[in-house]
């Protein structure tokens, strides 16, 4: 009898010892993936695709400027612990390669903008402004690809495919989330086109602090003239400002816009000297905090088009 009990007890004991290990392994496997996105706009897009299967950490928080961002020690830890990292690419995050290298992370880095047709900014952008002196951007491409909703559809496909590769069990979730988000993108794209089609053709020109809306201009037919160049960190010369003022007066440009990340002083000066009205502040490189008017990418695009409509409608 003792021999029988012994042989029954040994497997039971073994099972009891292994069970917690299996439970821990399953919990780790089912835990949300640790996802890092470089800045707030990209982070929101990624979270929409990842859903509950991903916990997204954003390095450059809403209200932060990725052009001039300085990573912290916390960022190093966040990157090191990540399962996957999403960057915009197109030289937008000039600091990301050094951060990844210093962290020693083994996470795969995905460039969300891969596959888009980049806009050339060198030596002359769409507005005729010479960007050769823009010392904060060392590439020939405009990085602000998200300003065209069609490009964000490419972002979504890249994000979806990367998450499926990382987490094959979540394929159905990621695919459904992506399809749902693509439908919302189509709605916003149509809203933008409807608003702009109703604007007088001679009113479809605006001045902005930095040249962040080239993709929007190409896609939707509004001319954006950036005073400072492609990077929010660059500074406009007196010659640049004088040229902008002459252009506003000659072409009767109706409105100038303050961006939420830029110092409003220069735009206010241009408005005073030309009589062009100042529109509501618009968002270019960052979302607003959650309690602001642009806490998501979709709301940011809706907010911006309403601001443009308000300023440019006769």
From TrEMBL:
Bias-annotated ranges (Basic and acidic residues): 121-144
Q: Which SUPFAM superfamilies match?
A: Helical backbone' metal receptor (SSF53807)
Quick one: where's region Disordered? 120-144
Q: Which InterPro entries match?
A: AdhesinB, Bact_metal-bind_prot9, Lipoprotein_PsaA-like, ZnuA-like
Pfam families in the cross-refs: ZnuA
Record's keyword terms, sorted: Metal-binding, Signal, Transport
Its subcellular locations are:
Cell envelope
Please list which residues make up the signal peptide.
Answer: 1-27
| Record family assignment | Belongs to the bacterial solute-binding protein 9 family.
What is this protein's name? Answer: Metal ABC transporter substrate-binding protein
- Species for this entry: Hohaiivirga grylli
């Amino acid at each position: 009898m003792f021999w029988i009990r012994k042989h029954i007890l040994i497997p039971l004991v073994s099972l009891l010892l292994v069970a917690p290990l299996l439970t821990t392994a399953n919990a780790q496997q089912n835990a949300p993936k640790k996802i890092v996105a470089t800045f707030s706009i990209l982070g929101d897009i990624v979270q929409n695709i990842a859903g509950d299967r991903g916990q997204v950490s954003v390095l450059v928080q809403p209200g932060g400027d990725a052009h001039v961002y300085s990573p912290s020690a916390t960022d190093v830890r966040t990157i090191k612990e990540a399962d996957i990292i999403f960057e915009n690419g197109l030289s937008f995050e000039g600091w990301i390669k050094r951060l990844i290298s210093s962290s020693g992370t083994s996470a795969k880095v995905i460039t969300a903008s891969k596959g888009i047709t980049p806009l050339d900014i060198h030596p002359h952008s769409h507005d005729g402004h010479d960007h050769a002196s823009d010392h904060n951007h060392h590439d020939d491409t405009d990085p602000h690809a998200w300003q065209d909703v069609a490009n964000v559809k490419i972002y979504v496909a890249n994000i979806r495919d990367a998450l499926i590769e990382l987490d094959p069990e979540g394929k159905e979730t990621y695919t459904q989330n992506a399809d749902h988000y693509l439908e919302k993108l189509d709605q916003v794209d149509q809203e933008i086109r409807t608003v702009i089609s109703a604007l007088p053709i001679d009113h479809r020109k605006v001045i902005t602090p930095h040249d962040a809306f080239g993709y929007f201009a190409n896609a939707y037919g509004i001319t954006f003239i950036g005073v400072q160049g492609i990077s929010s960190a660059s500074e406009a010369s007196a010659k640049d400002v004088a040229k902008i003022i002459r252009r506003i007066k000659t072409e009767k440009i109706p409105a100038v816009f303050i961006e939420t990340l830029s110092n409003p002083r220069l735009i206010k000066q241009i408005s005073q000297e030309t009589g062009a009205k100042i529109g509501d502040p618009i968002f270019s490189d960052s979302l607003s905090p959650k309690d602001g008017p642009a806490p998501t990418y979709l709301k940011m695009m809706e907010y911006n088009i309403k601001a443009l409509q308000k300023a440019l409608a006769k």
